[in-house]
Automatic annotation (TrEMBL):
Threonyl/alanyl tRNA synthetase SAD domain residues: 168-210
Cofactor(s) for this UniProt protein: Zn(2+)
Name of this chain's protein: Threonyl/alanyl tRNA synthetase SAD domain-containing protein
This protein's UniProt keywords: Metal-binding, Zinc
Organism encoding this protein: Stecheria intestinalis
Amino acid sequence: MQGRYDHYERVSCVTEIADEKDGWYRFADTVFYGEKGGMPDDRGTINGLNVDGLYWEGEELWHHVNGILHNPIVMELDAEYRLAVTAPQTALHILDTYYRKKGILISSTNVNPENSYYDINTRDLPPSHLEEVQSYINHAIEMDVPVTFSYVKGREYPDPEYAKYDQVRIVTIKGLDQQPCGTPHVNHTGEIGSFVLLHSEHISSGTRIYFACSRAADWMLVREDRLLHELAGILNTGISELPEKLEKLFENNKKQKAELQDLTRSLCRYEAAEYAEKEPLIIDLGKNQSQKLRVFSQEYGRVAKYTTMIYSAGSLIDFAIVSPDQKARDFLEILKQKTGCSGGGSPKIVSGRSELSKADFAAAAEAIMKEKRGQ
């Protein structure tokens, strides 16, 4: 296995089947790398069939395709994807040493092209942090220094944690970093191409910093450009005018929302006055009117002459009890005992929810209201 992953651009080979079990294959040679050491599975084909599974058994890699394989075995990697997940491996090695010199540790990483980030174990960062890191990694890429590989016996490596391995692969980025690693790496830092820090956020263990690297940065640029043009088309404006257009859209939406709330309250006020003249025991607002229930009960409280139950049936029953003589809580307690509903509020207005069917709730509510109002 020594040297197998020292050349990331080795993306094809012809080999033979070494073993097979339950549809999984091990080969005399492979160009595929399975998820390990922060590196995701490679993508590609074997004899024209897409590889849909990879797993390690010790130092041996097992492969799976949806089909039966026969010798000779021809492997082809997705070269663009291999570079997209390899370049950040090297970049993160460089940043690992950068942070260690500042007493900060990179605690976890994700080089998935759709969502790349690394976590550091502190939140205490200056506002200029991303700018400083960006400048450092840009310089490392521009230096175009070589990345080399060497091998030592595990028991000879200074860290006793590695003694259990027959051999340890050392990745050296000249003048920038040196550490054990088994994943593919670029041959020199210029091959990273680009490493763009996007934004950061606080997490429980410190700070998460999102980035786009190499081909992933290219893909993101194309994807974001398409999204911008699609949004500009929907709003019938140019990309440069999008912020102003969106701001106006949100302002208009906010204004329309306020106008709708005013209209809803006016309608509820009118309906409440009409209901109050009829002095009902119960008011059914109709299906799925829980939003209207809140406003209507407030308006009804202004004109009600007697305690009244108001409700709306959806997947659950939402209700309010309006009591001009400050007895809403008393009615609610009786309703809780009879129906097992939940709720709470002031002596004048309470609100709650019941899991009963509409018919059962209405029957129980009407019985309580008749008894309490003496009807």
